[in-house]
Amino acid sequence: MINYTIRRILSAIPTLLVVAVVIFFLIRCVPGSPALTMLGDEATVEEIAAMEEEMGLDQPVVVQFVKWIGNILKGDFGTSIYYEKPVLEVIFSRMQPTVILVIYAMIIGIVIGVSLGMLAAIYRNSWIDKVCMVLSTLGISLPGFWLGLNLVLLFAVTLGWFPSVGYVYIEEGGLLETLRYLTLPAVALGLQRSASLARITRSSMLEVLNEDYIRTARAKGLPTRRVICLHALKNSMNQILTQIGISIAHLLGGSIVIENIFTIPGLGRLAYDAITRRDYPLIQGQILYIAFIYVFINLIVDLLYKFFDPRIEFK
């Protein structure tokens, strides 16, 4: 397993390099200048040129890229143009809201999605199966921003159960208060993730329930709950784990809309602000950091396959 892990880490390096190249050159295709954004529309040509020289944007793009990659290899992702702080420091300062939101949303998504998928598989072709699949279709079809706005209207504005916007850090208000502020956005994200998880769980469970060892376990008189949970669900987990890994990566990189709707100061809102301000180093560093997390999550998911299916051999 150690050799497999090392090979996977080494194989991720070309992927990250391709991501870095695409990020760097694609961002520079976006119209507008960071210097003009910082100085304002009334800035003179001389002032803009001086600011670009100070930021190193007057150099050839290839030279800028080589310097950026060289600094990354040293652990330096650059300095944010707007915040005037190291990029990693800015990213880490915004990690807490996004990490808690992703974990909260995934717990909701896994509980609802796996439960619906199991029910649909156990009661295949019944009205329960049809209701579960209709709910999953609705979850996939409904846009996250629409769902988030309606949750705010119902539970924040009408009922007043949860705050509509904002965020309270754990060190300021405690974990329960933090979760209270994140409940509505987590539900909006979790319901979307649960829809795809329900479909994957149903299809993988149906495959396993038709296996001979499941029929043997039932013939031996094992309780239905034990057959479903201990045998069927465990042997269906590989496909479910894959979907969970994809969902976590999507949430880390795709929470921009929800974080802006609920004004959560996380990585999604940070990315939106960085793009608006043309903060090249911050945009590049954040996307590359998310790509690294994506690769890391995929590695963890692959290693978990062995836990649920001992037959898997890492070569």
Key words describing this protein structure:
315 residues, mainly alpha, globular
SSE diagram, text form:
Elements lengths: L1 H26 L6 H6 L5 H11 L5 H13 L13 H7 L1 H28 L4 H15 L2 H15 L11 H4 L1 H35 L2 H8 L4 H31 L1 H6 L5 H10 L3 H29 L7
The end-to-end distance, rounded to whole angstroms, is: 8 Å
Number of helices: 15
Strand content: under 5%
Number of strands: 0
State the helical fraction. Answer: over 70%
Assign an overall shape.
globular
Cα gyration radius (Å): 24 Å
Element order: H for helix, E for strand? HHHHHHHHHHHHHHH
For the sheet with most strands, the description reads: none
Taking pLDDT < 50 over at least 5 consecutive residues as the criterion, the unreliable ranges are none
What is the average per-residue confidence, as pLDDT, rounded to a whole number?
A: 78
Structural class: mainly alpha
Could you explain the architecture of this structure?
The longest helix is centred in the middle third of the chain and has 35 residues, at 175-209. The protein is globular. It has 15 helices and no strands. It has helices spanning 2-27, 34-39, 45-55, 61-73, 87-93, 95-122, 127-141, 144-158, 170-173, 175-209, 212-219, 224-254, 256-261, 267-276, 280-308.
